[in-house]
Amino acid sequence: MSIPWGVENPRDSLFGKTSAAIAPVLAPAGFDTWEAAGSLVTGFVAKEVVVGTMSQIYVGEAEEEEVEEPTTFFQDVGEIVVSFWDATVDTVKLTISLIPGVDLMGEEAEEEDTALMDALQESFTPLQAVAFNVFVLLYIPCMVAVAAQRQEYGNKWMLFSAGYLTLLGWVVATLIYQVGSLLGFG
Fold it and tell me: CA-to-CA distance for 82 and 119, rounded, in angstroms?
């Protein structure tokens, strides 16, 4: 954290301490770390923020890139044309590759592990990852959906829906993790 008045370790921040307080509730579901709990807290803003939060927590800020020399207008146009051409060719290749038995992409289609993927593979077992993903899919919807529910149905039903969905997500994720552990998938 580069803020001069901030903390060195994100775990020591208010966010980290709040996340650590929530984490024990998630222990039966298999993801009782403050990092996982924190990403779920920010997921209330929008579900896709879960991944961004995990990236910030597990990987941290990306190293600053070297400043490149400014380009001319014609260099920019040239890069745009080349990029558009490459994207068009790749789209045609991928479309043709949908035909069974045809593989035009070859080894180009293989993904490289990112720093976040490596960090998550060290922090989560496959069973924990499945339970976590199920929880993310089922728990409280984003704040915009909750606000819309409040507007349409009132406070009582909005609170019921938020509590019910969060409890449902916890129960299903816990069942997946506990049964998977009993069956030896953990």
Answer: 34
- Rounded to an integer, what distance in angstroms lies between the CA atom of residue 174 and that of residue 27? 9
* Helical residues (DSSP H) of the chain, grouped into ranges: 14-22, 34-42, 49-54, 73-97, 115-123, 126-138, 143-153, 155-182
Look up residue 138 and give its two tokens. Answer: 């089922």
The answer to whether 23 touches 16, Cβ cutoff 8 Å, is: no
Residue 99 is encoded by which pair of tokens? Answer: 């035909």
Distance CA 162, CA 139 (A): 8
Q: Which two tokens stand for residue 32?
A: 């009782």
Sign of CA dihedral 165, 171, 173, 176: negative
Instruction: Please choose, from the candidates 128, 137, 141, the residue with its C-alpha nearest in 3D space to the C-alpha of residue 174.
Output: 128
Exposed, middle or buried by CB within 10 Å (0-12, 13-18, 19+), for 34? buried
- In the structure encoding, which two tokens stand for residue 125, read together? 């077992």
Q: Mind listing the pLDDT tens digit of every residue in the chain (186 residues)?
A: 445 567 778 888 888 999 999 999 999 999 989 999 999 999 999 998 999 999 988 887 544 455 678 888 898 889 999 998 988 888 888 777 777 776 665 555 455 668 888 888 899 999 999 999 999 999 999 999 999 999 999 999 999 999 999 999 999 999 999 999 999 887
